[in-house]
Amino acid sequence: MKKSSIIYIIVVVVVLFTISDTVFILDETQQAIVTQFGKPVGEPRSTPGMNFKTPFIQKTQFFDKRYLEWDGNKNQVPTKDKKFIFVDTYARWQITNPLQFFIRLRDERSAQSRLDDILDGETRNAIASNELLDIVRSSNRDPEITEDFMEEIEVLEDINVGRAAIEKIILEKANERCADLGVRILDFRFKRMNYVDDVRDRVYDRMISERNRIADQFRSEGQGEARVIEGNKERDLALIQSEAYQKAEEIRGRADAEASEIYASVFNRNRQSIDLYRFLRTMEAFEKSLDEKTSLVISSDSEMFRYLKRLN
């Protein structure tokens, strides 16, 4: 290969390398600053597209333009009313001034560490300054009360601050401390809160005991109502049976009276019918009262003796 060709190739390579080190491209999710010997030069670059810098002596530092996630550590924190709870939080933040961010924090790892100090600290201060009731509730509200549970539902105490207001306070104070860091915290929320284990067990035991007490009360009231119903049933049944027996006796009495009237009307028609009736009734009496082992002692003026005498 000729010496001129080698020189040409070397020049082309140098030119291409120089151009590649001069031009850098930003996409929609990025922002950048240019540094020279470790110090920022010029204004931050945030417009997507092609950008330029001095080759070899200047470097490019890229930062994310999107919303970033911060996930807090689960900490045990005492409330104002001396109740220990576990608090788990999260937040969303954004790099708003990449130049200031680079000067104060350098990179996202350092920013996350700094946010840990700021947000965890403000969370502890806010919880320690408020009672548990204000932390777990956001507004004052009345429980739904029905007739069955009128006496069982406790009246909820009113809150003074509320969970949403506490989150807003933490967000505002954290942003005040982040003002010179080139970042802005967009949102802060309590992800989860719970009692510590020993306190939670006591709360659960108390809740179980309270529910059992209410269940026992309802069970006792139910048994009382059942006894009342049983008593009413027995009373109504006795009343119905008594009225039925009375009506049956009245019907039986009327039937006997009507039968007697029929017999009397028939027997009063002629003497022979009366004699026949008496004879038949006497025979029925003999049939029901006499058998082979029966001895009968009667007077001579009785109807039975008269009929027996006629039979002989």
Question: Would you mind describing this structure in some detail?
Answer:
With 312 residues, this protein is of the alpha+beta class. The protein has 4 domains: 3-64, no CATH class; 68-195, Band 7 domain (Tetrahydropterin Synthase, Chain A), CATH 3.30.479.30; 217-269; 271-312, no CATH class. The chain contains 8 helices and 9 strands. It has helices spanning 3-22, 98-104, 108-128, 132-136, 163-177, 197-267, 271-289, 303-311, and strands at 23-26, 30-36, 39-45, 49-52, 58-64, 68-71, 75-78, 84-95, 183-195. Strands 6, 7, 8 and 9 form a 4-stranded antiparallel beta sheet that branches. Strands 3-2-5 form a 3-stranded antiparallel beta sheet, covered by helices on one side. Strands 1-4 form a two-stranded antiparallel ribbon. A hairpin with a 2-residue loop joins strand 2 (30-36) and strand 3 (39-45). Helix 3 crosses helix 5 (163-177). The longest helix has 71 residues, at 197-267. The N and C termini lie far apart (176 Å). The model has no long low-confidence stretch (mean pLDDT 82).
